[in-house]
Amino acid sequence: MPTITPTPRLPLIEREQVVGLVLTDVRTDYSWRLLTATENKTLNAVGTARLLGGMFNYALHDGAIYTIRNKNVAAITDETTTSIPTAQDELFVYGFVGDWLLVGFVPQGETPSQTMGELGAIRADGTDFTPITEQRAYTIPIIAPDHSYAVYVNGSNAGAWYADGTSEPLPYGDFRSGAFSPNGNHLALLRDGRLDVYEVATQQLVVSDGNVMMGGDGFMFPAWHPNGRQVAVTTYVAGRERPFATRLLTLDGTVIDIEDGSFPVFSPDGMLVALYQNINRPKTILVNLISGQCFAAPLVGVPFAWVGNGE
Q1: How far is the CA of 55 from the CAs of 71, 89, 94, 229, 250, in angstroms?
Q2: Which whole-number Å values give the CA distances from 130 to 110, 134, 164, 184, in the listed order?
Q3: What is the largest CA-CA distance in the chain?
Q4: Which has the higher per-residue pLDDT, 147 or 61?
Q5: Are 296 and 285 in contact (CB under 8 A)?
């Protein structure tokens, strides 16, 4: 297996600095679990964490967790839970653009069907609800690392929505999911059959992987390596016991097969990637990208994020 050099821009994180890997237990109650080198903990769940194809239905802002309860946005702190009712039924929260919380919604009483609803924005205090799209979407908006804007799909067209409430069309067309590189310089977009990576400044296509099968597209979200030069994507492989495999696309066009599994999450130093294998006996595996070694974690769950001291 080809080796991957950890990012030189980030110091290697010593073992005692890494708190662990947060997982969500999709087999039972969707509770969050923390895997560390010394102990396994069950974290307090905020209601039921609704799995959303590799993302979770909550957002953090000014010390509060925003999630959905009873079709309304709720802001939860250590001391209080505040419901933020609107004239719509909120289905999902996606994250913040400036002081605006992006939500998926439908008009009150309507059936959401199989979509994410329409895309709208609401201020953290519950005021100024603003619809963004005119059609119901199947795509989660992609929020820039600095939270200054989000890329979304409206019908068959892409657009950008900014923290000042303005929007503009983008030339990317339709896509199923995507992710910004850590520095925001590149945008990876997953479509039916391929992964395209664009340079944000020029909006030009940099590299593409045309062998990405969607089968089970809810599992397919690009995940960037911390070095910002490589992006992982899960592809469906028909006729195999383990139907999902994760591969790594480099900006120079090199493709590296990592391991069977989905929901890739890279450690902060870029040395490890956590994957979920959903087969007869589901398990979470950790792959060392330097040595190529792979081992099963003592906890089973879908990887969500690595956390360290102060994170």
Answers
A1: 18, 20, 9, 22, 23
A2: 18, 11, 12, 25
A3: 54
A4: 147
A5: yes
Bridge partners, residue 167, by sequence: 161
Q: Is the dihedral of CA 84, 88, 91, 97 positive or negative?
A: negative
| Consecutive H or E run containing 120 | strand 118-123
Q: Calculate the alpha carbon distances from 241 to 88, 245, 281, 289 in Å.
A: 43, 11, 11, 24
CA-wise closest residue to 275 among 257, 299, 259: 259
Question: H or E element: which one contains 283?
Answer: strand 283-288
Instruction: Report the half-sphere exposure of 194 (CA within 13 A, side-chain side).
Output: 8
CB-based contact 140:150 (threshold 8 Å): no
| Residue 188, SS3 per DSSP | strand
| Measured distance CA(207)–CA(249) in Å, rounded | 9
Q: Is the pLDDT of residue 32 over 80?
A: no
The pTM of the full predicted model, rounded to 2 decimals, is 0.84
Q: Helix, strand or coil for residue 15?
A: helix
Task: DSSP letter for 11, please.
Answer: P
Spatial distance between the Cα atoms of 115 and 266, rounded to a whole number of angstroms? 29
Rounded-to-integer distance, Cα 220 and Cα 262, Å: 8
3-state secondary structure of 217: helix
Compute the distance between CA of residue 130 and CA of residue 289 in angstroms, rounded to an integer. Answer: 44
Query: CA 289, CA 2: separation in Å to the nearest integer?
Result: 9
Q: Does residue 25 sit in helix, strand or coil?
A: coil
- The two tokens of residue 118 are 């329409």
Q: How does pLDDT run across 42-83, given as a tens digit for each residue?
A: 665 444 444 443 345 778 888 888 888 777 888 887 778 888
